Amino acid sequence: MNQGERLEAIKHYLTEHDSIQIEKVCDMFQVSKDTARRDLVRLENNNQIIRTRGGAMRSPIVREIASYHERLKKLTDAHKQIGKMAAAEIEKDDRIILDASTTVQTCAIALSEKECTVVTNSIHQADVLAPFPSVTVHLVGGQLHKSHLYMYGVEACHSLSRFFVNKAFIGVVGISNNGITVAHDEDAAMKKQMIRQAEEVFVLADHTKFGKTDFVKIADFREIDCIITDQAVEAKLMHQLINQGVKVMVI
C-alpha cells in the first residue's frame, strides 16, 4: 500500500474514531513508526488532522454553537437533575464559580435556598441568581460575547484571577482520552482560568459528551475533581478517570 492509500485509510478511520495512535497506524499497514509519523505529518500539513502526543486526532469542523436560547430549549429533565446534584454539593458560605454553559444554569436555578457567593462571567447566570436573597453575585468584566452573553478576553481572565473559590462548576463539549475539551478558544481561556481559581472543580456533562474530542483542550483529568452526569460511563474511560482521581457521580 502506497502513502496515498494509507492516508485515505487513516482519514477514514478518523471518521469513526476520535483519535489514532502511532501503534495503530503501524498495525494497520505493517509499517515502521517512522513511516507512520511521516504519514501523520503529511496529513497535518494538509490540515486534515491534529497531531497529538503519540498519535493524532481528527481535525474538527469549525462550527457555530447554537445560540444560548436554542440550547436552553434542548435541556432535558436529566440536565435539570445534573444541576440539582451539583447544587447539593454547595455548602453554606461556599464561594463558587459558575461558567456560562446551559447545563451549569440548571445548577444556578437550584440555588434559590442556598447561602453562597457566586462568581460568574455569564449575564444569564447573574440574571437567574439576582432574585435569590442569600446569594451574592460577582459578575466579572471583559469583552461581551453578543450571541451568548458572556464575558471573555484578557480583561475577563484578569478580573477572574482576583477571586479564589471553594468550587467551580463548568460545562464542556467533550470528555475523552484526550482530556476535557470545548469548541472555542475564548471559552477555553475562561474555563482554564476558572479551574486555576478553584479548590475543587466539577464538570457537568450529560452522556453525549463522553467519547468526544472537540477543538480546544482545557484540562487533563487530573485537573478536575468530579464529573456529574446522567448515565454510567464506558468502562475503559471510567478506569482512566478513577486512575486520575476523578469522582464520577451519576444522577
From TrEMBL:
Domain (HTH deoR-type) ranges: 3-58
One function term, GO molecular function aspect: DNA-binding transcription factor activity
PROSITE patterns: HTH_DEOR_1 (PS00894), HTH_DEOR_2 (PS51000)
Keyword line: DNA-binding, Transcription, Transcription regulation
InterPro entries: Carb_Metab_HTH_regulators (IPR050313), DeoR-like_C (IPR014036), DeoR_HTH (IPR001034), NagB/RpiA_transferase-like (IPR037171), Tscrpt_reg_HTH_DeoR_CS (IPR018356), WH-like_DNA-bd_sf (IPR036388), WH_DNA-bd_sf (IPR036390)
Protein name from the UniProt record: DeoR family transcriptional regulator
Originating species: Salipaludibacillus keqinensis
